[in-house]
Design goal:
The structure is a single chain. The chain is α/β, with parallel strands linked by helices and 231 residues long. Helices cover 47% and strands 19% of the residues. Strands 5-11-10-6-9 form a five-stranded parallel sheet, with helices on both faces. It has a two-stranded antiparallel sheet with strand order 1-2. It is built from eight helices and eleven strands. The chain has helices at residues 12-27, 39-45, 64-77, 91-103, 107-112, 126-144, 157-171, 192-210, and strands at residues 3-4, 10-11, 33-34, 48-49, 52-58, 82-86, 114-117, 120-123, 148-151, 175-179, 213-219.
Length: 231
């Protein structure tokens, strides 16, 4: 019997037994992956698999944090316990983006008091201000009742993993997002490559140990803006 190279030694037969268990659970309504807001894509891919790390990769300013906010809001709306590490930005802004996904308001307008009208940014009216406030208060009440936790304090990967394990044990979290990978405080390694390998290995390990879906935002470096990422 062949041996599969994993941290816990398993045979190929063991792995196929795991696949049968995944299938049986899925037929009973417990699917292996966490769903995504985009139904067709989620159905075709099975969502984000538990026990795995899924990178969200792109250039600066291309909507990675907005995409993560949409996923977090979707999970919250389905009462899926989740934990967000908002290292790229403060927790307030992540929640602002999440609220905009559900209540259809502009995070830019909320922060500037201006809205785009006929290609010009103009100050919003009193009525628009009151409507925006109503929507934000509505989202405040919504998210306050959900199994959602967010952390924006700078941390090492060891501290990140501790928080994941703690929230998994106490709150049963199923999904975790880390925005972003480059902002995790380095703790081990003499070179940037060694430090990144250490962080990545620790995140993969905790995802498997806790059987959670882990989304990690990462940046593409030294790629011209006009070059497709597939090249």
């Amino acid at each position: 019997t062949s041996i599969v190279a994993t941290e816990i030694e398993k045979t190929t037969a063991d792995c196929m037994d795991d696949n049968i268990l995944v299938m049986e659970n899925a037929c009973d309504g417990v699917v292996a992956g966490l769903p995504l807001p985009w139904e067709r894509f989620s159905n075709h891919t099975g969502g984000i698999m538990r026990g795995s790390v899924c990178p969200v990769v792109g250039r600066d300013g291309k909507g990675k944090s907005g995409t993560v906010a949409q996923i977090l809001d979707y999970w919250a709306g389905r009462d899926i316990p989740c934990l967000a590490f908002s290292f790229e930005d403060v927790a307030r802004r992540t929640l602002l983006r999440m609220g905009g996904c559900r209540e259809w308001y502009s995070a830019m307008t909320a922060e500037t008091g201006r809205a785009l009208f006929n290609d010009r940014w103009e100050k919003i009216t009193q009525h628009e201000r009151e409507e925006l406030r109503r929507k934000m208060l509505k989202y405040k009440a919504f998210i306050d009742e959900k199994p959602f936790w967010i952390i924006d304090t700078p941390m090492t990967v060891e501290e990140v993993c501790y928080q994941i394990k703690h929230h998994h044990r106490v709150h049963g979290i199923q999904g975790v997002t880390v925005d972003g990978f480059k902002d995790i405080v380095h703790s081990v390694g003499e070179s940037e490559t060694a430090r990144e390998k250490h962080i990545a290995k620790a995140l993969f390990k905790v995802a498997k140990e806790c059987n959670i879906a882990l989304l990690v935002v990462s940046h593409v470096h030294d790629v011209p803006d006009d070059m497709p990422l597939s090249k």
